[in-house]
Design a protein that fits this description.
The structure holds three protein chains of three kinds. Chain A is mostly helical. Chain A contains eleven helices and two strands, in the order ααααββααααααα. Chain A has one domain. Helix content of chain B is 72%, strand content 0%. Classes of the chains: A mainly alpha, B mainly alpha, C alpha/beta. Chains in contact: A-B, A-C, B-C. At the A-B interface, α4, α9 and α11 of A face α5, α11 and α13 of B.
Chain lengths: 295, 329, 397
């Protein structure tokens, strides 16, 4: 192959792996973006729901013998139910409590969830046995790509589409958008923000659970999952802009590709580039790429 | 009388403020086998004090304070292992200077934002420092940590031994000096201005206070003190690992401070002491239950006792005073 | 004041009695600092299991009235500050006569000054970077050194693969493995296709493996810590299609720990490694060891290289305790440990080289195969006999 051909092939490989990683980051973080934009709540414990989804997938497949698609659904529902319960019982008490209380509360949640995970599942990462169909590679444009990663990209796009439709075209979506833009106005117009918050939080947590389950290969479910990946989830949300679907999608893909490209071409730099770029970007646009300035 | 949540800025010294020093000196004689733990507690008290300045008095919420702690530790460690400057006081000064300078530089950038963006930036700055320490393994030892640190005897006479007597008294002295500095600072008009900025920045701007500059100064001082604490740790342990940087130590020191009670300096003494002593006794046997317990305790504190242990003590004191007044009538 | 004098006298007597101890009873305390939690939790688990099993089976050999007490402490992983603190407490508070453990190099390095300052022999059961034993005259290592496994691997690879790509975790053992392998491999006539160092915490190797694949080497030499990391690497290796692209996976035995094999699945078949111990070895001493292990810990449990090292370490400690009748003198203990010889260890004939206080042993080439329906590291041939550590280097600054 010509040098240009080699380079193109490398770029294709990096882009592919980066997109798959980005999709996982997107599915996990989009819920955080929406809830942070909607409720203004600094939820550092978002990774807990992603971890839950990953463990549910592992347990459902290994202990209960459930098939992969159903186990994914179980991961989504399980995390959503956990999210709804947490919101009603705990989060709702702290909506007006100020940043410090919210940060500490979510740190407490991380400690508790991590300990429960460690007690229940030990310290090793949960192993996921993918169905044989998804093993191996498929040929695309004359190059072999891992099949599972291809599926991740397709599913990611699909989920992004469904979410976009939900936010832009349904009544619920309109209520969410209104509440994100101006909560008090939305309340004066008669929107029941309490129920909206619960429903949206449940959806966001469910998405995180689904992302955690789908991405179990890349981000293995383990007791220290919430702390380990916290910074990356927050970067996606901050860089994308709170409450913006487009922002979360763009930021997640950018970070996925940048991180993968770094590992491929300049492993000595490590995560430096991603953090440095984040700082630079947040200084240029403190509300993220697609965020809106808020009082 | 200070009501729960009031931030003590009284410049006059009151006798209970001598208690921590009496306890610390007594511990030196009564529990000689535990001096290594004692030195650690003193170091983390200094770290918590530095955090209290900006979180409690300044109202600046940060998740990246360990960046300055770790930077101070690595500076002192690198000096003591890679150069001939093994005198502990030089390392201390270098750690404080490094922390202060980096605090000034990063603060200049970070303090222009507010709320979630500020939180994010403190996290990102801390994460980037951790990544740098990890990559520069020639200088920092990377994932293996910085070993081979030799600390010259203090003043040429007091060597740092296995039992930790020199380390303990050294840490105690440094903590005392740091506390004196902070105490005067918060008792001075500077402290009042800080709490004013915390409570109502708009009004402070309106009366002409240089809000941004004051916040930056507080941030830099806090970072310098954290750097000194880190340098102490490097010298006492004769080792620096990557675990002095990142989200975990930042979160933990925040938790210790909150449990003790934020904004009154005293909480910074109580929190780390109780936390680290409990951890020493309990966490070895049941590490998972330890973090579960801490999490539940923190949850309880956030929901029911947001002013920490000091707040509870205040409430108890107030309740007893009311009872006493009622009975006297 | 006669009552005071009497009280003082009684106190002095009591003190003397306490110091002398009850007639004949002597407890030798061994402080074990290793990793019981986190991704490499198996290291601590296997160390303590092996030591306790040995103690149970050989308790009768101790002199009458002499007991051995194991005090275990968890350093939580490669957290050297914690390891140092725990060692300091064991020495000062619990007054142990022997320190043992250290799964990780940085932890061993942090404990070394404590051993020297307290004059307590430090028996290493895993940490394998070559220069560790130079950091304290009280260290005796019963496990292995990285160059011991990797140099024979490099020499063998030089005869079988034209090009090799190396992938190691970015910490002292990994870097040492990379450098020793490359030196030995190039000396044997091979060409290095490329090298990459990955962060220790890496869970997803796909980008790095893609890099390897695109370089088209004959083999990939990998060294990552055991446990989750090794399993992730194995999975990624298969997922990215490297076997199909004709790349063989080779490395030190750390990448296919015996206890992780069941979880690795078919991806591990065909991996060639070099190490001093495999649970599938057929020498009589090992068959007895494995049988005793399964009897004590269940038929589904197998020992691994960490267990074998800890077993031999306990054998040596017992030798010292018996020779000194429980009254442990640090210099004598150190001398006895440094001259340990065992022709019949589960790993084959081994001995400690008194000059370096490091283990001298055979290195075997193994292939991971299906044996009676289970994955096992089958020893194919002995690549090196009584190999002293090829890597004794000057202490790093």
């Amino acid at each position: 192959m010509t040098p240009a051909g080699v380079l193109l092939s490398q770029i294709a490989g990096v882009a592919f792996l980066g997109l798959a990683y980005g999709m996982v980051l997107y599915v996990i973080s989009v819920g955080l973006s929406i809830t942070m934009g909607l409720m203004g709540f600094v939820n550092l414990a978002h990774g807990v729901f992603a971890m839950t989804g990953g463990f549910i997938l592992s347990m459902a497949m290994a202990r209960l013998g459930i098939g992969f698609p159903l186990a994914l659904l179980a991961a989504f529902l399980g995390a959503a139910v956990l999210g709804a319960a947490a919101e009603r019982l705990l989060y709702a008490r702290l909506y007006g409590a100020g940043e410090r209380a919210q940060v500490l509360f979510t740190i407490a949640l991380i400690f508790i969830a991590a300990s429960v995970a460690r007690l229940s599942f030990g310290t090793q990462a949960a192993q996921i046995r993918l169905p044989d169909l998804l093993h191996g590679q498929t040929l695309l444009f004359g190059r072999a790509f891992p099949t599972y990663r291809a599926l991740l990209i397709l599913l990611g796009c699909g989920i992004a589409g469904v979410l976009w439709f939900g936010i832009e075209r349904t009544r619920w979506g309109a209520m969410v958008r209104a509440s994100v833009d101006n909560r008090f106005m939305a309340q004066s117009v008669g929107i029941d923000t309490g129920r909206l918050f619960t429903l949206t939080f449940a959806l966001g947590s469910g998405m995180a659970g689904l992302g955690g389950a789908l991405g179990a290969d890349i981000l293995p479910p383990q007791w220290n999952y919430p702390q380990e990946h916290l910074v990356y989830f927050l970067i996606v949300v901050a860089v994308g802009g709170l409450g913006s679907l487009r922002g979360a999608f763009a930021a997640a893909l950018l970070i996925g590709i940048a991180d993968t490209a770094c590992r491929y071409w300049a492993p000595a730099l490590g995560a430096f580039v991603v953090y440095g770029a984040t700082i630079a970007l947040l200084l240029w646009r403190p509300f993220g790429l697609f965020g809106v300035a808020r009082a | 009388m200070s009501r729960a949540g009031a931030y003590s800025a009284d410049p006059r010294l009151r006798w209970p403020e001598a208690l921590p020093w009496v306890v610390a000196l007594a511990a030196f004689f009564l529990v000689p086998d535990y001096l290594a733990l004692g030195a650690h507690i003193l170091i983390y008290i200094l770290f918590a004090l530095s955090l209290d300045l900006i979180v409690g008095y300044g109202g600046i919420m940060t998740l990246g304070h360990a960046a300055f702690f770790g930077l101070g530790a690595y500076t002192a460690g690198i000096l003591a292992s890679r150069t001939t400057l093994t005198d502990p006081l030089i390392g201390l000064a270098a750690g404080g200077l490094a922390g202060g300078l980096f605090g000034f530089a990063s603060g200049a950038v970070v303090l222009r934002t507010r709320g979630i963006a500020l939180l994010m930036l403190t996290l990102a700055v801390s994460a980037i420092l951790l990544a740098a320490a990890n990559q520069a393994n020639g200088l920092t030892g990377g994932a293996d940590g910085l070993s081979g640190i030799t600390v010259a005897p203090l003043f040429g006479r007091f060597a740092f031994g296995l039992v930790g007597r020199t380390a303990y008294l050294y840490s105690l002295s440094v903590l005392f000096l740091g506390w004196v500095v902070l105490r005067r600072l918060v008792g001075a008009p500077f402290g009042a201005m800080l709490t004013g900025i915390r409570d109502n920045p708009a009004r402070m701007e309106a009366i002409g206070a240089p809000v941004y500059r004051r916040k930056l100064l507080a941030y830099a001082i806090s970072a310098a003190l954290a750097g000194v604490a880190g340098a102490l740790l490097a010298q006492v342990n004769q080792f620096v690992g990557l675990d002095v940087l990142g989200f975990a130590p930042s979160g933990e020191i925040l938790v210790m401070l909150i449990l003790g009670g934020v904004g009154r300096l005293t909480g910074a003494f109580l929190g780390p002491t109780l936390f680290l002593v409990a951890q020493d006794q309990l966490a070895k046997a049941w590490p998972e239950y330890w973090y579960l317990g801490v999490g539940l305790l923190l949850l309880g504190v956030v929901l029911f006792a947001p002013d920490g242990l000091l707040g509870l003590a205040d409430a108890l004191g107030a309740a007893l005073a009311r009872r006493g007044a009622g009975r006297a009538r | 004041m006669p009552s005071l004098v009497r009280a003082a006298g009684l106190a002095a007597l009591a003190l003397a009695a306490a110091i002398a101890g009850p007639a004949g009873a002597q407890t030798v305390k061994i402080g074990v600092v290793t990793t019981f939690t986190g991704p490499q939790a198996s290291y601590g688990d296997f160390t303590v299991k092996a030591m306790r099993l040995y103690e149970k089976l050989h308790a009768k050999e101790l002199p009458p009235g002499v007991k051995i007490e194991l005090i275990t402490r968890d350093d939580g992983g490669p957290i050297p500050e914690k390891a140092r603190q725990l060692a300091q407490e064991l020495v000062v508070r619990d007054k142990v006569q022997i320190l043992a453990g250290a799964a990780f190099t940085p932890n061993a390095l942090a404990i070394a000054p404590i051993a020297t300052a307290a004059k307590v022999p430090f028996v290493i059961t895993n940490a394998a970077t070559s220069f560790i034993t130079t950091r304290s005259p009280y260290i005796v290592r019963f496990s292995f050194t990285i160059p011991q496994t990797v140099v024979p691997l490099g020499q063998w690879a030089g005869r079988h693969f034209k090009t090799v790509y190396t992938l190691v975790s970015d910490f002292a053992p990994g870097i040492e493995a990379e450098q020793s392998f490359i030196a030995a491999y190039k000396a044997a006539g091979g060409t290095i296709a490329g090298s990459v160092r990955v962060p220790i915490q890496t869970a997803d190797f796909s980008a790095y493996l893609q890099r390897v694949k695109d370089a088209h080497p004959g083999a990939l030499m990998a060294f990552v810590p055991g446990g989750t990391t090794a399993s992730s690497l194995m999975k990624g290796f298969a997922e990215l299609g490297l076997p199909a692209a004709g790349v063989k996976l080779i490395g030190p035995g750390d990448i296919v720990p015996d206890e992780d094999l069941p979880g690795m699945g078919k991806a591990a078949i065909g991996v060639m490694t070099v190490q001093h111990y495999s649970a599938a070895a057929t020498r009589p001493a090992n068959l007895a060891f494995v049988a005793a292990w399964k009897k004590a810990y269940g038929a589904n449990s197998t020992p691994n290289f960490v267990a074998a090292a800890s077993w031999d370490a306990m054998d040596a400690i017992f030798g010292a305790v018996i020779a000194e009748k429980g009254h442990m003198d640090p210099a004598r203990t150190l001398a006895i440990l440094s001259h340990y010889r065992n022709a019949n260890s589960p790993r084959g004939p081994v001995f400690i080289d008194p000059a370096t206080r490091d283990m001298v042993q055979n290195e075997y080439l193994r292939e991971t195969e299906m044996v009676h329906g289970h994955l096992a590291n089958v020893e194919i041939k002995t690549l090196a006999v009584a190999l002293k550590d090829p890597g004794k280097v000057a202490p790093k600054p």
